[in-house]
């Protein structure tokens, strides 16, 4: 918390955000004390921004002693690339950007290849990068409140040599005692934000003044309407259909990913408090903007078992 | 739908003045609680109801919930709240939850994290896991059923984990006509039982999770109940971290922060008390003292930090301090010991093996530890103490634990951060048990190592040799004793001072009280290891010939010896060959079922992965094998 927050409340009552912050810091330090070659997965979204901020707090005055890894698809919003490079520099951390060379060679894109786009760029790309750099622990920004199957995932989640997750064979996590031991070829995904909710993240970003991608704030942007989603035309690779003309509309994004797969919402929220206000008054859940979840009820769980983060 | 007005949604401030709302909500506290009950007690329905009433459910989720309720709900088309907290696909198919799940909701006053644990045979493990981080427990009872065996079990575990704030939620009051008489009857039964297990107090609340009675607002059906609603109580109940602030300062060091030569900080999460710059502190186990120079954070130095916060401390003096050490108030340090009494909750499919070295993680330190046979096992249904030689999955027992290093600790009841521990299997790396330290055994504090003037090096030097332990391992009939015998004869002829410890011979005397169960095999090897160590201290070249089938125990003995002193010789003979030889006729007996736990037949042999020497007796004669061993010994003497 900033010093203002400290003086504003009596020390005997840690707020929920202070407790969450202390827990996340504790988790990150346990990893660094035990791992051989940790990395932080950085997707440039608000959760990543929050996680990076917590890492800077955990190791201050040192820089976080691990690199950031962005598993890129080349289809992110341009504004995300801008913030990504700046944030890594500000934290004094190395940034590794990985592109799946096969996806690159085959020109895999969200327009022509459907779910193959996510499979190859993200799921396969992540596995490739972890193997290539020999990372044994990877921090991820997933939260338990995002989706039902996540509610049961551990903070320290073990992956077999081929990066699979076995929900039936998880280690019990007691107290603050994380068992970080693993076999040589296994790896661990660690989720320091497990106990944060979407509202906690927003409040923390507000309180700590953390920079996030401007796409979270409403602004007139060129969009087309497709399959019930408002898709922003972020660059000239976007293949417009016959008669389709991008409309300028006041929109913002509640979640960020590949721009052709991420639905915008119409909104007038231009400031962080307004975004939070809208979120609190809203009636649909965060994941609705993501095309990936629509397949079937247990889709996230299937993807996770296959290695999708 | 029988939903009442969701009280916590329509905070007018959100729409009117979001900034004021945010300021208000930044000062919320957080309570973690666990709900205990089995499938039929309505646990999932209650949690679903809390999420629903605190408006943690969005319209799209509600739409799919309404749909799911019609398809697979158990409430005849009405909203089935239980479906909200259902999770993994496999569970959905089986219709049960199989693990601990964490749910989140918030009111104006607090954020809540609920640990939801299922009610089937894995219950003890899951519930102990969920309860370990809880400030409060909600124990659910079906008003029609009253206090059942499982209620006792839940309550015992809640009490064991040190949760002092217990709510007895008497659920399904709608199904007993909201009867006050029934409610008080259950409360009276439960009081009697609570006293038996040493539970100081609990708060009974009559509720209906399905209908929403006394969850968020007072039930009009039960005017006779004057106490708080469930959510009302959850909002006001005390939080564990706060109670820890009144105790003396404790912080386990997680990580030493050294960005450059001029800064050396000690990072950790404060587990008790408060700390200020200038406070005298003591570092354990070394006992060295210094004062706190500064409390460093990203947001600037602090003038005070309290239990629950993660900080970095710097010291006025350069004293040794590293991960695993505990920083304490100088005049009120915690205890340091290497032998303890503790309660263990066994969480692994493989039984506990007394004497086997396990890893023990406590605070930020991981040490090697061995466990004695249980003093007793607790029957979690009846609270009876039972005699037992081991602990199986979900068993709870009281044991003595001995660690290979002194460990700073506090009794679990005083400080869970410094009294709670996990045990880890060295081979599989699985978390196999959770434990709670009671107290240090006095004997470890009063017996000190006697330093003698003629030390081990002097003993060996006088004999013009280096002490060694040559450990032969292999199947029965592999040729261990034969080879070891030749080796000793030849070394003796060379003027070396040796001694051969043979498996069969030792079992006639020192270990004659031991049989051939896994647990006894472990103890057998432990004793032989200790004897071998004493003999190597005397400067001897010790040869041992034991099947010693488990990697863990061979590793234990290796760890007892000085580095380079232990030579593991794997006498590698295929089972068929050993069985064909059958010098003592034991394989035949084992095959006939007359000999139980025989290695290679009905008890496993774990071959060494990194033996110093492997001799294959199918390819080598015993003489040749012995020569190879002697070469290795002489090489190590150079």
Order of helices and strands of chain A: HHEHEHEHHEEEHEEEEHH
CATH topology of the largest domain in chain A: Rossmann fold
CATH H-level superfamily title of the largest domain in chain A: HUPs
Percentage of residues in helical conformation of chain B: 25-40%
Strand order, largest beta sheet of chain B: 2-3-1-4-5-6
What count of helical segments of chain A does DSSP give? 9
Rounded average pLDDT of chain A: 83
> What Rg of chain A is obtained from the alpha carbons, in whole angstroms?
19 Å
Taking the sheet with the most strands of chain B, its summary is: 6 strands, mixed
Q: How would you characterize the overall build of this protein?
A:
- Chain A is an alpha/beta fold and 309 residues long.
- Chain A has two domains: 3-210 and 300-306, Rossmann fold (3-Layer(aba) Sandwich); 214-293, no CATH class.
- Helix content of chain A is 35%, strand content 15%.
- Chain A has helices spanning 3-8, 16-34, 46-59, 78-91, 101-106, 115-133, 198-208, 272-281, 299-306; strands at residues 38-41, 68-72, 95-99, 137-139, 156-159, 187-190, 219-226, 229-232, 247-252, 263-266.
- In chain A, helix 4 links the parallel strand 2 (68-72) and strand 3.
- In chain A, helix 2 crosses helix 3, helix 3 crosses helix 7 (198-208) and helix 7 packs antiparallel against helix 8 (272-281).
- Residues 1-10, 287-301 and 303-309 of chain A have low confidence and may be disordered.
- Chain B is α+β, with helices and mostly antiparallel strands.
- Chain B has four domains: 12-238, Rossmann fold, CATH 3.40.50; 243-329, Elongation Factor Tu (Ef-tu), domain 3 (Beta Barrel), CATH 2.40.30.10; 335-446, Translation factors (Elongation Factor Tu (Ef-tu), domain 3, Beta Barrel), CATH 2.40.30; 456-637, Rossmann fold (3-Layer(aba) Sandwich).
- Chain B has 20 helices and 28 strands.
- In chain B, helix 14 (480-493) crosses helix 20 and helix 16 (518-537) runs parallel beside helix 17.
- Mean pLDDT of chain B is 85; it is low at 1-10.
- Chains A and B meet through helix 1, helix 2, helix 3, helix 7 and helix 8 of A and helix 2, helix 4, helix 5, strand 2 and strand 3 of B.
- Chain B: This is Multifunctional fusion protein.
- Chain B: Its EC number is 2.7.7.4, 2.7.1.25.
- Chain B: Heterodimer composed of CysD, the smaller subunit, and CysN. Sulfate-activating enzymes, NodP and NodQ, may be physically associated.
């Amino acid at each position: 918390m900033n010093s203002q927050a400290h003086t504003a409340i009596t020390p005997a009552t840690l707020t929920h955000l202070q407790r969450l912050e202390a827990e996340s810091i504790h988790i990150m330090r346990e990893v660094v004390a035990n791992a051989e070659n940790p990395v932080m997965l950085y997707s440039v979204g608000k959760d990543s921004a929050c996680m990076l901020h917590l890492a800077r707090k955990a190791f201050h005055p040192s820089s976080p002693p691990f690199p950031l890894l962005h598993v890129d698809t080349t289809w992110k919003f341009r504004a995300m690339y801008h913030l990504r490079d700046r944030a890594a520099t500000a934290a004094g951390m190395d940034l590794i950007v990985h592109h799946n060379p096969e996806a690159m060679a085959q020109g895999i894109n969200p327009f022509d290849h459907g779910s193959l786009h996510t499979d190859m760029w993200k799921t396969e790309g992540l596995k490739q990068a972890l193997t290539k750099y020999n990372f044994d622990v990877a921090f991820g920004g997933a939260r338990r409140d995002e989706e039902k199957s996540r509610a049961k995932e551990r903070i320290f989640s073990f992956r077999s040599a081929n990066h699979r997750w076995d929900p039936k064979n998880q280690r019990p996590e007691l107290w603050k005692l994380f068992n970080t031991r693993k076999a040589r070829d296994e790896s661990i995904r660690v989720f320091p934000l497990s106990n944060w909710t979407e509202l906690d993240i927003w409040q923390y970003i507000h309180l700590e003044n953390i920079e996030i991608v401007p796409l979270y704030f409403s602004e007139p942007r060129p969009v087309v309407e497709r399959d019930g989603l408002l898709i922003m035309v972020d660059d000239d690779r976007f293949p417009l259909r016959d008669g389709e003309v991008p409309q300028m509309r006041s929109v913002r994004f509640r979640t960020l990913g590949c721009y052709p797969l991420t639905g915008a919402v119409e909104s007038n929220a231009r400031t962080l408090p307004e975004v939070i206000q809208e979120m609190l008054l809203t009636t649909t859940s965060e994941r609705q903007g993501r095309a990936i979840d629509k397949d079937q009820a247990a889709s996230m769980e299937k993807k996770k078992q296959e290695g999708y983060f | 739908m029988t939903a009442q007005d969701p009280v916590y949604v329509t905070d007018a401030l959100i729409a009117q003045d979001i900034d004021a709302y945010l300021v208000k909500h930044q000062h919320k506290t957080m309570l973690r609680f666990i709900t205990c009950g089995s499938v039929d007690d309505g646990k999932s329905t209650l949690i679903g109801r809390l999420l629903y009433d605190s408006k943690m459910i969005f319209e799209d989720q509600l739409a799919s919930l309404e749909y799911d309720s019609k398809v697979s709900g158990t409430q005849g088309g009405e909203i089935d709240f239980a479906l909200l907290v259902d999770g993994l696909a496999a569970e959905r198919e089986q219709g049960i939850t199989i693990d601990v799940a964490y749910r989140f909701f918030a009111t104006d006053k607090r954020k809540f994290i609920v640990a939801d644990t299922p009610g089937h045979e894995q219950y003890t493990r899951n519930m102990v896991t969920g309860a370990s981080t809880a400030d409060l427990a909600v124990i659910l009872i079906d008003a029609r059923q009253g206090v059942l065996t499982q209620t006792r079990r839940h309550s015992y575990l809640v009490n064991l984990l040190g949760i002092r704030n217990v709510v007895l939620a008497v659920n399904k009051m709608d199904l007993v006509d909201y009867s006050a008489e029934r409610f008080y009857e259950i409360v009276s039964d439960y009081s009697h039982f609570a006293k038996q297990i040493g539970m100081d107090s609990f708060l009974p609340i009559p509720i209906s999770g399905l209908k929403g009675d006394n969850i968020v607002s007072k039930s009009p059906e039960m005017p006779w109940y004057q106490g708080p609603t469930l959510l009302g109580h959850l909002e006001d109940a005390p939080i564990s971290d706060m109670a820890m602030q009144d105790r003396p300062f404790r912080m386990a060091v997680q990580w030493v922060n050294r960005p450059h030569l001029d800064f050396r900080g000690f990072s950790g999460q404060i587990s008790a008390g408060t700390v200020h710059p200038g406070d005298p502190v003591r570092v354990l186990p070394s006992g060295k003292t210094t004062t706190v120079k500064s409390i460093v954070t990203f947001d600037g130095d602090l003038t005070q930090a309290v239990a629950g916060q993660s900080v970095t401390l710097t010291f006025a003096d350069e004293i040794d301090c590293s991960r695993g050490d505990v920083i304490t108030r100088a005049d009120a340090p915690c205890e340091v010991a290497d032998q303890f009494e503790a309660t263990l909750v066994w969480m692994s499919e493989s039984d506990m093996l007394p004497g086997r070295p396990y890893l023990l993680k406590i605070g930020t330190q991981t040490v090697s530890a061995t466990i004695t046979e249980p003093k007793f096992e607790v029957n979690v249904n009846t609270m009876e103490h039972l005699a037992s030689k081991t602990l199986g999955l979900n068993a709870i027992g009281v044991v003595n634990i001995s660690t290979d290093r002194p460990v700073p600790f506090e009794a679990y009841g005083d400080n869970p951060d410094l009294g709670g521990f996990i045990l880890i299997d060295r081979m599989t790396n699985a978390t196999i048990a959770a434990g709670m330290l009671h107290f240090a055994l006095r004997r470890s504090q009063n017996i000190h190592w006697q330093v003698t003037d003629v030390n081990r090096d002097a003993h060996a030097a006088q004999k013009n040799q280096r002490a060694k332990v040559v450990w032969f391992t292999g199947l029965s009939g592999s040729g261990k004793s034969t080879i070891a015998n030749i080796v000793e004869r030849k070394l003796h002829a060379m003027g070396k001072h040796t001694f051969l410890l043979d498996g069969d011979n030792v079992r006639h005397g020192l270990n004659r009280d031991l049989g051939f169960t896994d647990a006894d095999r472990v103890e057998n090897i432990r004793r032989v290891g200790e004897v071998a160590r004493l003999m190597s201290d005397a400067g001897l070249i010790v040869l041992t010939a034991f099947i010693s089938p488990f990697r863990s125990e061979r590793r234990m003995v290796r760890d007892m010896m000085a580095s380079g002193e232990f030579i593991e010789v794997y006498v590698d003979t295929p089972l068929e060959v050993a069985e064909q030889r059958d010098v003592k006729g034991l394989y035949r007996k084992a095959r006939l079922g007359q000999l139980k736990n025989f290695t290679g037949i009905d008890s496993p042999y774990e071959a060494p992965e990194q033996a110093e020497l492997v001799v294959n007796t199918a390819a080598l004669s015993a003489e040749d094998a012995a020569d190879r061993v002697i070469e290795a010994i002489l090489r190590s003497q150079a």
